[in-house]
Each structure stands twice: as C-alpha cells, then as structure tokens.
Amino acid sequence: MARRPPGYFVRQYGQELAIVNTRAQTVLLILLLGLLFALPLFLSARWMSWFIITCIYLIAALGLNITIGFTGQVSIGHAAFMGFGAFTGAALTVHLQWPFLLSLLCSGITAAVIGTVFSFASFRLKGFYLALVTIAAHFFLHFAIMKLPQWTGGAYGLVLPVPSIAGFAFDTSQKWFYPVLVIALITVFLTKNLERTRIGKAFIAVRDNDRAASAVGINVPFYKMLSFLLGAFFAGIAGYLLASTYKSCDLAYFGLLESIWLIGMLIVGGMGVVTGTIFGTVLLRLLGFVTIRLAPSLLAAMPFLPLTAATGFTNIVFALVIILFLIFEPHGMNHLWDRFKNWYRLWPFSQAA
Q: How far apart are CA 90 and CA 236, in angstroms?
C-alpha cells in the first residue's frame, strides 16, 4: 500500500478553487459557525451591539470589494448607496407598512439601480477621476432626502419600528443578532463563490487589464456596470439593516467619511480577497471600539483638549493604521494570513519551500 506524502498538495485545479480543502478546515469551520451562533448566550449587550454593527459593515465592505477589489473600479460613494437603501426600506416600512424582508429586498434593488447609474461614468473614466464622480452620490443622496421630506423625513429622518419576520419581533440585540448574522454569512458565501465563477474571473480580468480583457472577448462595460450593481445591492441591504439596528434612519449615518473607512477596511484586510475583507472590517471595528473607550481617559489626562478631540482621536488612529499598512504591508492582513498558512503547512520542513 503506497504511503501518502506528508503535507498538503494541490493536484487538481478544483482543489485550488475549493473553499474547504482538508478535514481539519471543515472541522474548524463548523466550530467557528457554532461559536458564532452561540455568542448571544454569553456576551453582554454592548458586545452584541458591536458584533451586529460589525456584521452589517462587513456586508457593505464585501459589496465594495466586488467593485474595487474584484473589478478595480474606484468608488467613494458606497456609504451613499447604503443611504439610498436605508431610506428606501425605511420609507416602505413606515409609510406603507411593508414587511421587513420585502423592504430589505427593495432597499437593495434601489441602491443597485443608483449604483448602475453611476457605473456609466466607469465606461470612460478611471482611477482618481472615477472616484470624484462617485463622490457625487453623497450630494445626490442629500438632495433627494431633503427634496422628499414627506417620504424620507428630511433633516429629521425616520423612526423605524422593531423589525419582525412572520410575526416574531427582534426586540433585543440577542434576537436581532441572528438575522443579521445569517445575512452576513450568506453574503460571505455568495461573494466567495463569485470569485470562482465566470463572472468573477471576468471581473478580475477587467481589473488587471481592461484592454486585454476586451481583446479576448469580455464585454468590459457590462462587467463594470455589473460590479457597481452588485456592490451597491449589498450596500443597500447593509444600509437598511443599519437603520433597523438604530431604529432610525438619518443622513448622519451615511457620510463621506464612512465611505473612506470602508475603503480603509479593504486596504487593511487586503483588496480582492473575501478573507481579507473580514479581517479588515473586524480590525477597524475593534480599533473603533477600543479608542472610544480610551477617549475619556485621554481627555482626563489632557484637560486642555476640547471635547471634540474624542472623535478626532478615533479618526487619527484609523488613519494611522491605514497608512502603516500601506507602507509596511500593502497587501493587507490576508497576506500575513497566507504566510502563516504556508508556514504551518510545511512545518517542521519550512525550508523545503
């Protein structure tokens, strides 16, 4: 009987594309999912709220990863797409009493339509110029909300009821955590599998060289438009979930700075990789949680600072982390994770590589 060589070796192309390759990875994935679903049993309400908001931002970041990471189309209007989805779902829920799931779907569709409109600029523009055009989405959002106060609440926003599905109300953070987690897991699964499809490979070809992609028969404008559509759809879903979490819908939740931090999550985690998006979102959210808790101590130690310095402290830490990653690890945390996997798979024969 032939002995199997030690270590893990990829012998077929399907193995390279597989999400789970080994029995150990399967067991760890099951344990991780079990741990996630058991979190409400032993976490406080504060940490539950942190996990809920993190899952929502992960959904938005995965959508942005499709647009920027997979297809290379720079967008600084992602938070505005979240806002369009949030106000659409909120208006349908408050004024028309539509059920939560139907409002959620419509919020994603509305954001996808707006994202498709802005994708037309990507047919002729790239890089910095495309980024400037997508910034206009924030001004368009503000204009639309203020011009339709009877539906959007204008400057005061809307107050949302407790979300419910089939008569079951999610009136606590422990209950609300489960639908948000399920939607986040579905988004991760869909985005991860998108990488392996014909569409995902076309996205990557457009990102690497759109002229070469066009030369081999890829419809470049179509795939650019599709990347904006899918990214904005996820953003709209995340926006309505965020508004439902806060029980209110306000323009302050969807400012330009939020779009910049979403891009920062991709930079820190690693562009074009689902695992990196998860790492970047969790890390920046943890930094935000810690810095907000440290802000009172900073103000107490430096009484000459104004009260607004607490908010500035968080932004400074975020910016510093992003700059450090750009300088020392431009491929993000996912590159560190890949290096670690290569190390433990070859240990103790690491020099064999």
A: 11
Q: Which of 237, 190, 183, 184 is nearest to 70 (CA)?
A: 190
d(CA 220, CA 43): 47
Cα separation of 64 and 233, whole Å?
10
Supply the DSSP symbol for 172.
S
Question: Following CA atoms 106, 109, 111, 112 in sequence, which dihedral angle do they give, to the nearest 10 degrees?
Answer: 170
Backbone φ and ψ of 171, nearest 5°: -95, 0
Helix (H) or strand (E) holding 46: helix 45-64
The predicted model scores a pTM of: 0.91
Write the CA distances from 123 to 138, 181, 215, integer angstroms: 21, 35, 16
Within the chain, strands assigned E span 158-159, 164-165, 168-169, 248-249
Q: Which domains does the chain have, with CATH numbers?
A: 45-352 (1.10.3470)
pLDDT digits (tens, 9 = 90+) for 37-75: 999 888 888 899 999 999 999 999 999 999 999 999 989
Instruction: Specify the residue for token string 């904005």.
Output: 232
